[in-house]
Every structure is written in structure tokens, then in C-alpha cells.
TrEMBL record:
Keywords: Oxidoreductase. The keyword Oxidoreductase applies. Residues 140-254 form the GFO/IDH/MocA-like oxidoreductase domain. It comes from Pseudonocardia sulfidoxydans NBRC 16205. InterPro entries: Gfo/Idh/MocA-like_OxRdtase_N, Gfo/Idh/MocA_domain, GFO_IDH_MocA-like_dom, NAD(P)-bd_dom_sf. PANTHER family: OXIDOREDUCTASES, TRANS-1,2-DIHYDROBENZENE-1,2-DIOL DEHYDROGENASE. Belongs to the Gfo/Idh/MocA family. This is Putative oxidoreductase.
Amino acid sequence: MATEKTAERGTVRWGIVGPGRIAAKVVRDFGHLDAAEPVAVASRDAHRAAAFAAEHGIARPHGSYRAILDDDEVDAVYIATPHPQHRAIALAAIAAGKAVLVEKAFTVTPAATREVADAARAAGVFAMEAMWTRFQPAIVKLRELIADGAIGEVRSVQADLGVSQPYNPADRYYDPKVGGGALFDLTVYPISFAQMVLGEPDEVVARGLLAPSGVDTEESVLLTFPGGRTATLFTSLRCLTPGQARVVGTEGWIDVPPRFHHPDRGVLRRHGKDPEEFLAPATGGGYFHELEEVTAGLLAGRTESTVMPLADTIAVQDVMGLVAEQLGIDPQEGPAEL
């Protein structure tokens, strides 16, 4: 098992599955980790894998996903393929004894997320969603302030995240076959942020727009929580928005300036006091912190993260499932050629 091997050796050997734009950013942050190194990369296109490996100094390119899962020199895999492929690759990796860091959104259906989580728990294999927001130092500080009662009882979360991406049916953002739409690329962030602060909602109400291709382009989501607490969220592929968040409590509030999903600071505003800005920049490109979490977890013999536990990923995916249902979209998990 990966956990046993890495604990004994003291180094986590990583494989990259899906050498795309995000993977290129993530792999650069391995340079900040002493106990981890990327040793392999896999694509269904052997030339693409070879080019990525050459660019990033990775020793072994593989021309199939199955090949990297059969690679005994790989302990953990970072899965950055299109969303509908996450389930199949994660299940195969877990069956092969590889730890998995699965790019958000974890899957495209609540059932698939539970299936992967159950498989990881049953096999005793580390699994985590790559929700980098939760590991940003500024967000860690925000959570500490909330826990210390800096703003009293938390009552509301507000967040937005929008980009201007004109409609193009050939663009991945608008292609349902690769999990296009705002929900899996954008809305997952404010939903996860709200769940992190407020827990699991009692009710989900979503309204939005669909593109001609059938994916969602914009949505407003209202979440209600026990005790009448609420989260109001807005995301869009049509409108560039500030991308900010606010957590409101009975004794003040905390602003997370744009873009809230990878901030370098926050502002605490206590009633009757001057604003208190806290600076907490990320290391590297900001992906270092989630890589460190998995690496440290494997070396310590853990199978889940306490910062991004599987239960939270399941809760977020449940909300996303209800949003999809109310908007009239029907995302489908796709097969992955292993």
C-alpha cells in the first residue's frame, strides 16, 4: 500500500494524470516540497505526456492512465482530467493502492462521490478533493478567527465568482461531455466555502440560465442552514464579477477580497473597532498547501484530511446535485480509457 511504502521511505512519489493547464501549475509547486516529487505523468496521448514530462523534468511519461496506475514507483496520483472522468480513474487508482488527490469538482454526481469515498475508506487508501481554497493561509486564518469568536455567532455567507467566457459550443466550458458549465468549475467554490463555514444546509434553492448546449452559464444559489443562517451565492460564465466573499456574524464580519478562492489577505471588521487586515500569502502558486497536506498525511499513515475530509466533499456534492436538478441539467459520469 502507498501509505506503508511512503512512511518507510520518507518520500511521496507522485504521478500526474491529465497533463493540462491546471496540472502544469500544480506540478511547479512540487519544487517547494522536500518530501514529495513528481516522477510520472499519464495522458491518453503519448506525445502530450512526453512533452509535459520534458517541460517539467518528470522522468516517466505514460501513454495511458492504466500504465501510470501499474507503475510501482508511483505512490499517489493527482487527477486533473475532465470532471466526468474523475470517478473511473479514482476508483482504478484506489484499487491499485494509489493515494488520490482529485481535482475539484470531485465528480459530477453525488452517487459517484460516495462511491469513490466508500472505495477509499474500504481500501484504507488516502483520498482528498483538491479544493485548494481550504488550504490557503488566509482562509486558515479566517477559520481560526471564526473559531475564536472574533465575529460572534456566524449568521451569513455571501460569495460570488464570475468570468466572461462568451458562448462557444466548441469550448470546454460549454461542452457537457467534459463537464462544462459554471457548476463544476465555478459554483463549487462558493458552495464549498459556505459548507466550510456553516456546515450542511437544510434547503437549497437555485435559479439560473442554460446555454444552447445544455450546460449552466449562470446561477444564484440560496442555502439555508439550521437556526435560520443563510448563504447567498452567485456565479457566472457571462459576467466578470469581483470574486469576493464575506462572512457575517453577530459581532462583526470578515471580508475576503478578490479572488476569494485563493486570497492572500482578509479584513476583520469588529463592531466599534477599526478594520484589521491580515496578510497571509500562499507559497508558490498556491497549490503547495494541498500537496503538502496529502504528502504529510501519507507519511503519517493517515487516510483522510481533517481540513478537507471526504464527508465535506460529499456534502458539497449533494448541494451541487440539487443545484443541477433545479436548473434542469443532467451531468453524466463518463468512461475513462484506462
